[in-house]
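WARN no homologs supplied; continuing
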Amino acid sequence: MATLKRQETDSRENPLLKTTYARHLLIVLLPSCSSFLSLFLPSFLSMTALFFAATSIASNTYAQDFAPPPQKNSARIVSIGGGITEIIYALGQQHRLVGTDTSSIFPAATEQLPKVGYMRALSAEGVISLKPDLVIASAHTGPPAVMQQLQQSGIPVVLVDETPTLENIAHKIEQIAALLNVPERGNLLTADFRSQVDRVNRSITGATFRDSTLSENPRGSDSTSILPKVLFILGHAGGTPMVAGAETAADSIITLAGGLNAFNGFTGYKPMTTEAIIRANPDVILVTTQGLTRIGGIDSLVKFPGVGLTRAGQMRQILDYDALLLLGFGPRTPTVMLELHQALLSIGEEPEAIHAPVGLGNRL
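OK structure emitted
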């Protein structure tokens, strides 16, 4: 069961100033992400799904600012990163936003805000033109040259850790609330988030999956306790599916929902051979809704090399969720944890029975 621990913060030490900018640049320049950009950058939906899917678990860093310190009551804020923007809305501080990046797609009202580009390919001029007095950005924001331009412009910029864990979601809420000088709202939102996590964990703990419907996959020494194997597909390059390994947002959400990542023997995202996919034989294939639409739906997905020969492909046990909801690791993560868990419990009932939108796209 995933646990969420409270972190005591010494008021004499600001937890927002823990790491160096160079540390964050290492995250921005993760090798596994560069090939994805060349594949999917032309499409807005692809970019959105790419950012959240490519988020890997890094070291436990915290938000860090550079350039001048932010004002206590910043009135003109640019947020870069869909999860960050979602938290600002959840804190009721959206009236202070003057712009966001293109990965900020929830809630729907974000569409009315000026966009400063895709978070990994920002334009410094676009940000500066909005005259912000604070930029709150994902630690994955880039390119580095643009971040240097923003630093030189004198605009306060705070980089926020995007490690895809439940604990870090609580940290992000607290950190952003502190930056916006609304700690009480942050405490309430964090308490509600922790309460949701506790309720969901109680539902997930001890769940019994339909053993007879799953491929052979014993959990521990108890052969009757079986986890459904889940394969997350990001996209494909030259006909070869790109799949999620360990230390990715996809791996984290699969594990939190009670599943087992079918490819947890490596880290990051890699193209998989037909033979490897057949050998993994997942019970379920998980994709983003944006990704499924881009490849032409389930009929096209099961034609990926090897996919149609797996149990998931043959039974068309495909699950799709909005990219930000599934992989953004924000306030709605407990909801999608439970939705995914319940979907995994239902596998084997009827072909395509578990393929359905979760219906949470308009709810904060």
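Residues 5-49, 56-63, 218-224, 350-364 have pLDDT under 50 and may be disordered.
OK
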